[in-house]
Amino acid sequence: MDIFDWVAARSECRMFNVFVKLKAEIEADVNTRNEQLKIAQTPRILRLEATGDESFAVTLSGNGIGNRAVTFRQIGETIVIRDRGGNVLIEAGLTLNDDGNCKLKVGESERESWQIRRTALEDLFFGLA
Questions:
Q1: Closest by alpha carbon to 124, among 56, 45, 52, 54?
Q2: Total Cβ atoms within 10 A of residue 27
Q3: Beta-carbon neighbour count of residue 6 at 10 Å?
Q4: Cβ within 8 Å of residue 119, ≥6 positions away
Q5: What is the pLDDT of residues 14-34, one digit of tens each?
Q6: pLDDT by residue (tens digit) across 84-97?
Q7: Residue 106: strand pairing partners
Q8: Are 81 and 122 in contact (CB under 8 A)?
Q9: Integer Cα distance of 68 and 49 in angstroms
Q10: Backbone φ and ψ of 117, nearest 5°
Q11: DSSP string spanning the chain?
Q12: 105 and 94 in contact (C-beta within 8 Å)?
């Protein structure tokens, strides 16, 4: 019988680590979507713009759409995601769940990284397609 070292697992479940990983995953999402837009010959481009160690934005620009953005900011042990107008789309914390996995938590619900990314970016990526 293995004894789960929850103290070590919780110590590794830090917002800084999760935020860095989330940013890298979003960069990959942006690259994937830009390739799709290029193939479709859509005059739009997405960019990931670092605005500091604890924040970044994903912007969409192109003909006739102006400039749209979603910002991601780490504030202590929380990630706050806002639209261009400053409206909060998601506020997520962390939890070490009963399976011993580090998960993002929105309200009382555990979320996978892809679910957070989809909720935050789906309209930006596909809303004007």
A1: 45
A2: 14
A3: 11
A4: 89, 90
A5: 999 999 999 999 999 999 999
A6: 899 999 999 999 99
A7: 109
A8: no
A9: 13
A10: -65, -45
A11: -PPP-HHHHHHH--HHHHHHHHHHHHHHHHHHHHHHHHHTT-SEEEEEEEEETTEEEEEEEETTTEEEEEEEEEETTEEEEEETT--EEEEEEEEE-TTS-EEEEETTEEE-HHHHHHHHHHHHHHTT-
A12: yes
Residue pair 126/119 in contact by the 8 Å Cβ criterion? no
Residue 13 · residue 96 · CB < 8 Å: yes
- Structure-block tokens of residue 39: 């193939």
pTM for the model stands at 0.90
Distance CA 82, CA 74 (A): 12
Residue 86's region, left for phi above 0, alpha for psi from -120 to 50, else beta, is: left
Strand order in the sheet with 44-52: 44-52, 55-62, 66-75, 78-83, 88-96, 102-106, 109-111
Amino acid letter, 118: R
If you average pLDDT over residues 45-57, what whole number do you get? 91
Residue type present at position 20: V
Supply 4's token pair: 């789960």
Q: Could you give the CA distance from residue 13 to residue 103 in angstroms, rounded to a whole number?
A: 8
